[in-house]
Write a structure and sequence with these properties.
Layout (H helix, E strand, L loop, with lengths): L1 E6 L7 E6 L2 E7 H5 L10 H10 L9 E4 L22 E5 L7 H9 L9 E4 L1 H13 L3 E11 L2 E9 L2 E9 L4 H11 L7 H7 L12 E4 L2 E4 L15 H16 L19 H29 L3 E5 L6 H7 L7 E4 L8 H12 L20 H10 L10 H10 L4 E4 L13 E5 L4 H10 L9 E5 L3 H4 L13 E2 L17 E2 L2 E3 L5 H14 L3 E6 L11 H11 L3 E4 L2 E4 L13
Parallel strand pairs: 1-4, 4-6, 7-12, 12-13, 14-21, 16-19
Antiparallel strand pairs: 1-2, 2-3, 5-6, 7-8, 8-9, 10-11, 14-15, 15-20, 16-20, 17-18, 21-22
């Protein structure tokens, strides 16, 4: 049984996954192929072709197609047959091409699908998010929390997964969007679209002294009090754009004019941010966390569960997840690593598999490295085509560890590309955490602001020593604090409040990356390396060896480890390296 899940609505984060007999076997985002971050307004044509080619399949081998949307057009008019409970349901359009939404029909045609070949399942957006968290958690029974900007008129869902069934407990509309609150605060402070991670990084430099009275928590959940003209559960009259406009008006009334766009040219310095702006960031982060904790506790109480899983774009907030993961009495926590819309087709496909009578394999996701990989010949060709001299060390992981121990910055490319927004040791820039100056250099290489934190990758077995709470955090999505006796030794991965978003590395799952960290530890005594995504701040994570070489050459990093090969940065005087083929 094969199901293709596609996020092809044409808004942002177009992506595709392939499910075979209840298991996710391939997953890729379109942005990586077209080199356009978030792939706004694009269809995942390249991603679907890769998913099929990776398993030597054609459209004739696909049993079903699933999409994480029920509305025909994003935030627009509801389709025929739309009814009150479709916000947490599904509908099967089958192979009747004429009934398919236009955007899906156009996408399928571009991707090579003939009309009427593959049955289409439309899974409501929050059900898809919920399914992606539930079926990837390994929990048979759990409370589910989905929080994002909006999807199919819904912004927040509390649900219960039990015995392979997912049931809704509470839902809150676009007007009550916590995701839009945080996104609008991000925009108001001049950090633009998709700048929420920057806002989260800025928050520890401020004080949570400002209130957002619009967010009202109550025993049944919460409400956002904005413009009285906004109507809840109106699929036509109230769009997310109206909510954004209402929030910007509210913020402007309290804090003055929206700030000028920042981080579009040169990165900002911390001194560029007023105390009020820092306090707004800290207060917005605190308000979001308080609301999420309240909703998580409500979901746990309504479901009777002692476990919690979370998905939706807001679930990418590591700091909030750090609080949720350690709620009193909680016995299990899982945050879906591709929690945004890029990961929604995973849930849509898994739910469609259930509808087709093939329940997913309910085992915990331990790796989201499900994208393209490239052989040694392809790596060698990319290096040669770029005029880079290179060599093949006896052990590339040992060589990388040695360069890291010299305080050099290493670009690391190995195995299958990871999915989601965080690099997890397949397409990473790594460095020693021993000096804060090295963190600054890595941020400079990526053209990021120096005040933004960088994450540690560490061997799983060292988590108890390096982190205050410890535990297994393989997806860099749950914040912790660096243990007090380590903070001065690894300043490169310690944020202003002592926190970090750790990436624990399991030797059985990532043997090469684990070995590289191990070699570094043996030389330095330090149990972690700086890990950030292998890309320029303004581009997606690299996908191919050609992408890696191109980004490396303009980065200023010292060393490129590309598959089994190692190359040095060209000398600024000669433009050549001192390695030989």
């Amino acid at each position: 049984m094969r199901v293709l899940g596609i996020n092809a609505i044409g808004h942002h984060d177009a992506s595709v996954c392939l499910i075979e007999d209840g298991r996710v076997v391939a997953f890729a985002e379109e942005e990586r192929f077209i080199r356009d971050k978030h792939a706004r307004g694009r269809q995942p044509v390249n991603a679907v072709r890769w998913c099929l080619d990776s398993r030597s399949l054609t459209w004739a081998d696909i049993d079903a197609l699933a999409t994480p949307w029920v509305e025909e057009e994003f935030g627009s008019v509801a389709p025929p047959g739309y009814h009150a409970d479709i916000s947490f349901g599904e509908r099967e359009l089958g192979a009747d091409w004429a009934r398919w939404p236009v955007n899906i029909r156009e996408f399928a045609a571009m991707a090579g699908c003939r009309s009427g070949v593959v049955p289409l399942f439309q899974v409501s957006h929050h059900l898809a998010h919920a399914a992606s968290a539930y079926w990837c958690s390994g929990f048979d029974e759990t409370a589910i929390l989905v929080v994002d900007g909006e999807g199919d008129r819904v912004a927040t869902t509390l649900a219960h997964g039990d015995g392979g069934r997912i049931s809704v407990l509470r839902q809150f509309s676009t007007v009550d969007s916590l995701g839009q609150f945080y996104a609008c605060l991000t925009r108001f402070l001049g950090l633009g679209s998709f700048g929420e991670g920057k806002l989260m990084g800025l928050a520890p430099y401020g004080r949570p002294v400002l209130e957002f009275p619009e967010i009202e928590l109550d025993p049944d959940g919460y409400r956002l009090r904005l413009d009285p003209g906004l109507t809840r559960w109106d699929p036509v009259g109230t769009t997310y754009r109206s909510v954004i406009e209402a929030w910007i008006r509210r913020l402007s009334e309290r804090f003055g004019e929206p700030r000028e766009a920042r981080e579009r040219g040169l990165p900002t310095a911390l001194a560029d941010w007023t105390q009020q702006d820092r306090d707004m960031a800290a207060s917005g982060q605190f308000a979001l966390e308080e609301a999420l904790v309240h909703l998580a506790e409500l979901a746990l109480r309504l479901s009777g569960s002692r476990r919690l899983v979370i998905a939706g774009g807001v679930a990418l907030n590591c700091s909030a997840n750090g609080r949720l993961a350690h709620l009193p009495g909680l016995e299990g926590f899982f945050a879906q690593p591709a929690a945004g819309d890029d990961g929604a087709p995973i849930g849509a496909a898994l739910h469609a598999s259930v509808m087709c009578g093939v329940p997913p394999v309910n085992e915990r996701l331990t790796s989201i490295s499900l994208g393209p990989s490239f052989g040694a010949d392809t790596c060698a060709k990319a290096l040669s085509d770029a005029g880079l001299a290179y060599r093949e060390p006896g052990d590339i992981t040992e060589a990388a560890g040695e360069h890291l121990s010299r305080n050099e910055v290493v670009c690391w490319f190995e195995g299958r590309m990871e999915g989601g927004p965080r690099a997890l040791g397949q397409r990473s820039i790594v460095a020693s955490p021993a000096l804060a100056a090295t963190r600054d250099r890595v941020n400079d290489i990526k053209r990021r602001a120096r005040w933004r934190p960088l994450a540690p990758s560490l061997r799983r077995e060292d988590a108890g020593a390096l982190l205050e709470r410890g535990g297994d955090t393989p997806f860099m999505i749950v914040a912790d604090r660096i243990a007090a006796d380590w903070r001065e030794r690894v300043p490169g991965v310690v944020h202003a409040d002592g926190s970090a978003r750790p990436h624990t590395v399991d030797r059985a799952v990532q043997p090469a990356y684990w070995s590289m960290i191990d070699h570094f530890q043996r030389r330095t005594g330090l149990p972690a390396v700086i890990n950030t995504s292998f890309n320029d701040e303004r581009e997606p994570i690299v996908c191919s060896p050609e992408d890696a070489v191109r980004t490396f050459l303009r980065s200023g990093a010292d060393v490129l480890c590309l598959g089994p090969y190692l190359a040095h940065s060209p000398s600024p005087e000669t433009g050549k390296t001192d390695e030989r083929h």
